[in-house]
Amino acid sequence: MLLKKRSKIGLFVVSVLNLTIIACAPGPYFVRTEDVSKEVKLWYGYKKLGTYVLKEDVFIRIIDLPLPNKHILVAPREKTKGIYTLHFSSPFSISEYENNRDEWDDIKGIVKAGTRLQCTKLIRYKPLGFSDSLYLYAKIINGPHAGKEVEIGELSLLGPESDAGYLHKPNPNLLTPIEKDKKTIGLHLNF
Asked: Helix, strand, or coil here: 79?
C-alpha cells in the first residue's frame, strides 16, 4: 500500500516537473497564431489591401518571435519621439545606423521614403500566459525590397484595446494612404 502511494506521488511530481520545464521553454509550442484578416473591425485605421506610402526612410529588421514572418519595418527613433513604439528599438537616425552597422546586425537594410506598402493580413498572436497582440502585415510593392511581406505595427499609432490586442492606425508622420478614385481609377496621395 505504501509503495503504491509513493509511486503515485512520484508520478505526480515528475508530471509537474515536466509541465514546468515545458511551460518555461521558449519557442512556438505555447504560442498560437490566428489569421483574423476577415474581421473588419480589427483593421481599425487601416484597410485590408489598402496601399500606403512611406513618408520617411525606415529600417527593415529581422525579429526573433515565433511568427509566420520575421521581417519588420521600424522607424528611426528620431521619427517616433514621444510616440510609444510597440516592441522594437532602432538606431536614433539613419546616419547613426550607417556609421555603426556592426551594432545593428538584425537590421537588413533601409526601405526608402516613397516606397508603397499594401496591407495583406492581420495576425493575432496568442502567447500562453500573456495578453494577445495584433500583428499587421504588408507587402512591399516597389523598390529593392519589393515582394517582401513585412510587419508594420511599429509604423502605427495604437488605438483602443480589443480582445485581440491593441488596434492600429497609420502614424501620419510615417505613412500616407493612397486612395483609388472610382471615377478616374487614378491614384491620389493624401499628404
From this structure: helix
Rounded Cα distance, 28 and 25, in Å: 9
| Domain annotation covers residue 112 | yes
Q: Are 96 and 107 in contact (CB under 8 A)?
A: no
As a whole number of angstroms, the distance between CA 138 and CA 122 comes to 9
Give the residue numbers spanning the domain of 157: 31-189
| Helix or strand run (H / E) with residue 7 | helix 2-24
Does the pLDDT value for residue 19 go beyond 70? no
Count of the separate structural domains present in the chain: 1
Q: Which three cell numbers mark 43?
A: 483593421
Place of cell 509541465: 19
46-72 pLDDT tens trace: 999 999 999 999 999 988 766 667 899
In which residue are the cell numbers 516537473 written? 17
Residue type, 11: L
